[in-house]
Amino acid sequence: YTVNAAAQYVWSLANGASVRVRTDVSGSGGDYYWEIDNQDERDAFWLVDLRLAFARGPLTLTAYARNLFDERYEMEFVPVEFSAAVSGDIGAPSIPRQLGVQARWDF
Q1: What is the DSSP letter of 6?
Q2: Which residues partner with 78 through β-bridges?
Q3: What b/e sequence results for 44-68 when a residue is b if at least 16 CB atoms lie within 10 Å of its CB, and e otherwise?
Q4: What is the residue-averaged pLDDT of the chain?
Q5: Do the beta carbons of residue 68 and residue 48 sit within 8 Å?
Q6: Cβ neighbours, 10 Å, residue 87
Q7: Beta partners for 19?
């Protein structure tokens, strides 16, 4: 299965300013196998992203968190039987939690 959902709310403030909060939730799981032999099953995982933005005129300032709860999972996995690697399986871990700020000027 794959699930995606989002919720957003905007508060209008004085002088045309606004505050927006948004959360995005995505999940993936079920019977998902990495290769055709069905020997290596991927575990289910859920991700939560959060954004808080202040906008006034052409300026928007945003604080965000991606993968808010620092969920760890395999983004890609190739077992040694299918990779031709000498030393074992090949994999790529998930991207860890990211926190940041963003400024945007519309013109």
Answers
A1: E
A2: 90
A3: eeebebebebebeeeebebebbbbb
A4: 89
A5: yes
A6: 7
A7: 11, 54
By residue count, the chain amounts to 107
Please tell me the distance from the alpha carbon of residue 39 to that of residue 36, in angstroms, as a whole number: 8
- The two tokens of residue 28 are 């993936």
pLDDT in tens, 53-72: 999 999 999 999 999 999 99
Place of tokens 């992203």: 49
User: Which token pair is 87?
Assistant: 């030393």
% of the chain residues with pLDDT over 70? 95
Q: 48 has which bridge partners?
A: 25
For residue 25, what are the CA distances in angstroms to 2, 66, 97, 99? Answer: 11, 10, 14, 16
pTM for the full model?
0.81
| 88: region left, alpha or beta (phi > 0 left; psi from -120 to 50 alpha) | left
